[in-house]
Amino acid sequence: MSRVSLSSPVPLYLQIADSLRDRIARGVWQQGEVIPTLEQIAAEFDVARVTARQAVQLLMSEGALTPQRGRGTFVSATPPIMKPVQVVTTLQALAEMYQATSQQPLTVEESRRKPPVTAADGELAEEYIYMKRVHSSDGLPYCVISLYLDDKIFSMSPDRFRNELVIPILVSLSPQRIAKARQTLTIGSADAETARLLRVPTDAPIARVQRVFNDPDNVVIYYADVVYRGDAVKVEMDLGSVSS
């Protein structure tokens, strides 16, 4: 039996819709194939039939499913393919990657708060602008980023920082301030809020990247916690040749 989380703030029908959507995306349910009945879906997730119907109706409204009278409900659309994001290892390559792609940042929260840095990360600036954003490509969300930018740098071009991708602007406006830049990649699973924003099932695999930029005085001028969809990440490494 598939599971839904009763303690999650995400409604049950949305959790089920995420699971069904994921099956279509992975090809478990292919285009033109009839899906299980509402009774079967309800039994699988141990929910009421009305909850299963809400999930299926949501996918119908998205165009992924189509009902056919007397025949059942069919997969009507192949989900769009997520273009992988290359994990790069230099600041210049990171800026170039962002500049070369058409991404649509959507800010879902903005405030002033301190980044959760440790002493090993560097010294804190006086004040930071915090933005939580969803980055999309071709209309598909592929990462959620929680970023903290030194307010002194933010004030240099607030409109651009609010409406464009931050790293290319930061590199172009203040390259001399970035004395050190590093990132750490870990693998995990999506919590309910991240899953909702990325349109993936709760506990779906994700890649988490922590980025820290420091100025010459070791002050943290940029801190970001970036969560990527698992199917949006591509890691490629040249291992060289084997010597005989």
List keywords for this structure.
244 residues; Arc Repressor Mutant, subunit A; Chorismate lyase; 2 domains; two-stranded antiparallel ribbon; 10 strands
Give an account of the 3D structure.
This protein has 244 residues and is an alpha+beta fold. The protein folds into two domains: 12-75, Winged helix-like DNA-binding domain superfamily/Winged helix DNA-binding domain (Arc Repressor Mutant, subunit A, Orthogonal Bundle); 85-234, Chorismate lyase-like (Chorismate lyase), CATH 3.40.1410.10. The chain has helices spanning 12-25, 38-45, 49-61, 91-99, 151-154, 158-163, 166-173, 192-198; strands spanning 65-68, 72-75, 85-86, 103-112, 128-137, 140-150, 180-189, 205-214, 220-229, 233-234. Strands 4-5-6-9-8-7 form a six-stranded antiparallel beta sheet. The protein has a two-stranded antiparallel sheet with strand order 1-2. The protein has a two-stranded parallel ribbon with strand order 3-10. A hairpin with a 2-residue loop joins β5 and β6. α1 (12-25) packs across α3 (49-61) and α2 (38-45) crosses α3 (49-61). The radius of gyration is 21 Å and the shape is elongated. The N and C termini lie far apart (52 Å).
Name given to the CATH homologous superfamily of the largest domain = Chorismate lyase-like
Strand order of the largest sheet: 4-5-6-9-8-7
Low-confidence stretches: none
Distance between the termini: 52 Å
- The best one-word shape is elongated
Please identify, by name, the CATH architecture of the largest domain. 3-Layer(aba) Sandwich
Structural class: alpha+beta
Largest sheet report: 6 strands, antiparallel
Give the overall pLDDT as a whole number: 84
Report the strand count: 10
**How much β-strand is present in the residues?**
25-35%
Please write the string of helix (H) and strand (E) elements.
HHHEEEHEEEHHHEHEEE
Highest CATH level, the class of the largest domain: Alpha Beta
Pfam families: GntR, UTRA
Keywords: DNA-binding, Transcription, Transcription regulation
InterPro entries: Bact_HTH_transcr_reg, Chorismate_lyase_/UTRA_dom_sf, Tscrpt_reg_HTH_GntR, UTRA, WH-like_DNA-bd_sf, WH_DNA-bd_sf
GO molecular function, one term: DNA binding
